[in-house]
Amino acid sequence: MDIESVSGNEAALADAVESALRGLGRLEVTRNGDAVVARTMLGRAERIILAGHLDTVPLPTVAGSRGTVPVSWDGKVLYGRGATDMKGGVAVQLAIAATVPEPSKDITFIFYDNEEVAAVKSGLGRLARENRELLDADFGILLEPTNGTVEGGCNGTIRFEATTSGLAAHSARAWMGENAIHKAAPILARLAEYEPATVTVDGLDYRESLNAVKIHGGTAGNVIPDQCVVEINYRFAPDKSPAQAEAHVRELLSGFELVCTDSSAGARPGLNAPAAASFVAAVGREPLPKYGWTDVARLSEMGIPAVNFGPGDPLLAHSDNEHVDADAIRECLAALTRWLG
Amino acid sequence: MDIESVSGNEAALADAVESALRGLGRLEVTRNGDAVVARTMLGRAERIILAGHLDTVPLPTVAGSRGTVPVSWDGKVLYGRGATDMKGGVAVQLAIAATVPEPSKDITFIFYDNEEVAAVKSGLGRLARENRELLDADFGILLEPTNGTVEGGCNGTIRFEATTSGLAAHSARAWMGENAIHKAAPILARLAEYEPATVTVDGLDYRESLNAVKIHGGTAGNVIPDQCVVEINYRFAPDKSPAQAEAHVRELLSGFELVCTDSSAGARPGLNAPAAASFVAAVGREPLPKYGWTDVARLSEMGIPAVNFGPGDPLLAHSDNEHVDADAIRECLAALTRWLG
């Protein structure tokens, strides 16, 4: 954490990770940009992935915040940018590499860059395009923070802009115009009345949501507005494809001009894989659904069942108060060591 | 029009007007800031006001627009900033001063600054505070553009901000938050359903309107919005005070947080004054109601019945295509000359 690694600036940290892994002398190490892949080559029947991103969101700008680099460490709690998201998880990956020389399954360690920025920059996406053969595995664990519980799959996300059009006029002669903001009333009403579903997928309950996240319209206090734009975000359970999610929203808002601006598929929980079952047993806690989108969706797209499992509270991610308990890191490491021992 | 006179920069034009009026040698001329008041002192039974503002809104920025200074003039149509609003009217004032030496009523010519900006800067307001005695009159004519028709009184205007509050949360866990944009749905629905009244005041029909003019809410595409603000403008007939107009909107939007941000009283048409009746007869057209707010409301507040009457199309005011027909100016001048002759 003392090595600043805001997205796009991961080189120094990737160098340190690569050097540590090569120093162990028993891993096949590949560097791609600022991503590092290290594999045990023990000829085991199963191969699993332990993956984590090296980058963080920008450093906090709040004066006096404890989120700045250098970090603070009192022996129990580690404060600083990236503590939760996800240096704790990366620490577990490195500790497994260093302390479990003879795992029961072959392991592919993946450390990658640019997770916190636009999907097109993703280091994991680049590896999938350029070094797909290095990623072959039966099961994946992404060490994003989950408070030490297995969180399966993730909801998908899709965004729309709903636009209403009118005719500008001076508000003293409003009848010469058409009010685009008034026309947005039924869009907001349908969203407000909508009752989001909870969908059970492979035994886990995925709670959906559909929301207006932004709205803007009008140009001046004395002009009838000729346009109003409502930005809408639908978080949909992984039983649906993005195309099915889009059709659902278009049906709900039929009659309105709707442009899809962005979408990412969800991921089914992947708990049916044999490796997943034994892993869940080793962790010893009931698995939960993951609501936020994570890179398990990317592994899932490659045909690799994957779950989230890591130390730290995901609600602290990106906050000025970001921190992780040392015990949470140790417990996560212990569970993986039991499973791989 | 060749002398740029955007609000706050009227000094050169006020100098030119003052000099022209003093040069006639038969008017009592007073300068106050960039306002000029010139009065005939003929001891007539009645005194009327001919008023107009010297300033314009800022020059057009559209490349190739004909609204720039210097202006264009083909002998029939005068193009340029201020042509309609209201150099045409000011030209009529100056022509009356120059060509009607013995009017049947005493005339108070008022040329004033800062009409196009915040009410607190108004040159007419300043004259009312500092030289109230110069403004005494039985009837006022404001030479704002009305296409040469007498337009009586004006609607009042009042603005509100209606704010809804919620609770921010990540949109992947929307149920942790409360959506402030969704809460605005009934505000928009009530405004959309509202049927504005038409109110007859002193024989003229005033058409009201009530509109959302702006809306904004939300901070990011993945955050449940915690605030939404709807700006509302009510244009109300001059049978109501601003307080009555406010009560009307508060009743319609009861249950919502509503802050009144701005209001201006309307003005009754003032056609009951004896001078008004003879003036309407001289113009020879059916008077109409004025919808937009003008300084007749300010004269009305001082107890001076007043109407709008001037050359040019008010819909061209402030536009990049602002222009006025020379014939419109001549017709307006002819009507006033008939009445004052």
From TrEMBL, chains A, B:
Top-rank EC class of the record's enzyme: hydrolase
Residue intervals of the Peptidase M20 dimerisation domain: 156-254
Top-level division of the source organism's lineage: Bacteria
Keyword flag Transport: no
Stored InterPro entries: Bact_exopeptidase_dim_dom, Peptidase_M20, Peptidase_M20_dimer, Peptidase_M20A, Succinyl-DAP_deSuclase_DapE
EC annotation from Swiss-Prot or TrEMBL: 3.5.1.18
Keywords, comma-separated and alphabetical: Hydrolase, Metal-binding
Protein name, UniProt field: Succinyl-diaminopimelate desuccinylase
Single annotated GO MF: succinyl-diaminopimelate desuccinylase activity
